[in-house]
Amino acid sequence: MIKEFKNIRVDKLGIEDRINRITKRSLKRESKLKGLEMILSMIDLTTLEGMDTVKKVEQLCYKATHLHNQFPNLPRVAAVCVYPNMVRIASNSLKESDVLVASVATAFPSGNATLQIKINDTKEAIENGANEVDMVISRGKFHSGEYNYVFDEIAAIKDVCGENSRLKVILETGELGDYDHIRMASEIAINAGADFIKTSTGKISPAATLPITLVMLEAIKDHYYNTGKMVGMKPAGGISNAKLALQYLMLVKETLGNLWLDKHWFRFGASSLANDVLMQIAKQKTGFYQSNNYFSKD
Amino acid sequence: MSSTIQPLEFNGNWELSPSLESTDHLSLKNQYGLFINGKFVKPLSKKLFPTINPSNEATIAMIAEAEEKDVNLAVKSARVAYDGHWSKMPNKERAKYIYRIARMIQEKSKELSVIETIDGGKPIRESRDIDIPLAAAHFYYYAGWADKLKYAFPIANPKPVGVAGQIIPWNFPLMMAAWKIAPALATGNTVVLKPAESTSLTALKLAEIIQEADLPPGVVNIITGPGTTGNLMVNHPKIDKIAFTGSTAVGKSIMKNIAGSNKKSTMELGGKAANIVFEDAPLDQAVEGVINGIYFNQGHVCCAGSRLFIQESIYDLFIRKLKDRMQSLILGNPLDKNTDIGAINSHNQLSSINKYIDIGKKEGAEIFQLNCEIPSKGYWCAPTLFTNVSQSHAIAREEIFGPVLAIQTFRTTNEVINKANNTPYGLSAGVWTDKGSKVFNLTSKLNAGVVWANTYNKFDPTSPFGGYKESGHGREGGLHGLEAYLNLS
């Protein structure tokens, strides 16, 4: 596949000005509660550690379906995100629920492996029950200007995923440098068939930021304008509190609008965000902040 | 671009609950006198007029109307203060007072921003984040220059002008007072300042600050009233300099009045700025700049980017992005922290804006307005844009001073330079392109006092501001702003 990628321009100061304005939106009462509940429903509850065990994943899956028993009508998180060798465990634990299983794949987090290994990694994850695959792009190839390599690799993995498994493409923005690069990588991923574009693995700092997310949302918007096709967005890493998550949600609302305010099109990749959101929901419902010891840590 | 694609929807799903700034910390009187010779005094005219909240038409306070005898008193007190002590005071001593005023504005910034918002109608986000911080910044900046004038103008022997008569507009009341008073004091002049009739309150609060700061009596006098009060100042023989910010029509009449007198003048008048978007611009950020350029402060901005020029190759895409961005603007109670578009400043101004909107429709331009709920009381105008505008349309030629954008297209750089300069005004312009060489080419060819590149409506006390042609003469801000209040030899 030969394709020319046009360099769409992004102005760093303009992006940051826009974020300054978004973060000044003030969310109170009903709008805050609704926002918090939306966030919960959009979380990909994540454990991606070298020391992950069966028990750890099982505990996380239980948490995913029992966020906070004191408030029975809370939405459940969208998915649990694990390494490929934990997919079967997660899939068994979650089979009674509507929580999806997402698996990282393609030699996560570095992506430094051959295409064949990446394809096999992905196939295995899907065969074991992954509903969604979070792949990483080859950043080295991107930096050497081999955009078609990056494109073809994403397209090959999307082929493996087929129609039934949604593909999230991790750009690892912390390794891409400028906003222009992030914009271009977003274009490549979207055109190669990504169902979602995702900022980070969580293993590199900086991970997700609001300005980076805005750059990626703008790429999604332009694609929608051109084709009518929606692509999802998943900021991941570093979003650990409800206030920040609400700012992300406001950014989505004002950039892409209502259609994207849904777990089918927007996700948070996070491990500790859920508890802070629960604490804020408890505050909104009871009027008091509760100790974090009242919220289970799994 | 396919037209079958469902348009993006931005409202109706997750609405923001009200988030009102509190007003219970305000200390406002029911009635204000004139601030002359360090004291609030009753007007000899015995006349009062109401100042109202344009978002609900409620009267906030009664304001004194200064007539001839009052103006004479104010000028006399400024004269005595000038001759008696202020012009002779060591410069570094003057600086201390100006620093003190700056600090007190910061200390009272919350109260000042709320008053600015209820008296003028602008969103609290703007008065809190822009007006009041910039007002303080101007006092700090010019306090720093007070003892460095000989360094600023070497071998020119800088001397103050005398008594400055300053007449300011209603769009940035406290900020304009700061722009005028700070450089005048730093250079050793004394001041008689008149705020606009519809927005006197923050200037009167500034008078309280000046009193509390122990500025010697008579150095700053603040008198209130309508245009006739300003006229008395303009024609007063004991005033040495007129600094005016306002409409070009009034500016012209002031210049006629002071012709032949020895008065110095600075005029900061109207504008009809071109905001130019090239096909190689960062488009989403340009959209943001266009929105900020025209809808900031309901378009009540002399340097507003009221004429938008879009290169034809990106026209459809850009208009689509612009209309989508407009959907997330929130019009409503100016005290709500989420409000983007507040109330129009006065009934008169609203009538004038509406008149232009009618003219635009009659001239055959295509109107698009934000579909939003308009509050039942107060003066409101939904953000508006016109497409299919020609250079000869009135909405592209005359200053509307409201949230109304006139959009035209262009093909080449020379064409857009010609169109942008084809106006009696020359205050400001904006250029959006990723290409640095294009920016520098345009900045040298646009006849505008300020040209912003890839941003708009950015202000800083260190940067001079002022116009060409019928947008006025003289500069405020920066080193240039000092010169306007000095006699140099």
What does this structure look like?
The complex is a heterodimer of chains A (298) and B (489). Chain A is α/β, with parallel strands linked by helices. Chain A has one domain: TIM Barrel, CATH 3.20.20.70. In chain A, 45% of the residues lie in helices and 11% in strands. An eight-stranded parallel beta sheet of chain A has the order 7-6-5-4-3-2-1-8. In chain A, helix 8 links the parallel strand 5 and strand 6. Chain A is globular, with a radius of gyration of 18 Å. Chain B is α/β, with parallel strands linked by helices and 489 residues long. Chain B has two domains: 31-269 and 468-487, Aldehyde Dehydrogenase, Chain A, domain 1 (3-Layer(aba) Sandwich); 274-453, Aldehyde Dehydrogenase, Chain A, domain 2. In chain B, 39% of the residues lie in helices and 17% in strands. Chain B contains 16 helices and 20 strands. In chain B, strands 14-15-16-13-12-17-18 form a seven-stranded mixed beta sheet, sandwiched between helices. The N and C termini of chain B lie far apart (64 Å). In chain B, 57% of the residues are buried. The chains are: A alpha/beta (298), B alpha/beta (489). The interface between A and B is large, with 35 and 38 residues.
Summarize the structure.
By secondary structure, chain A is of the alpha/beta class. In chain A, 45% of the residues lie in helices and 11% in strands.
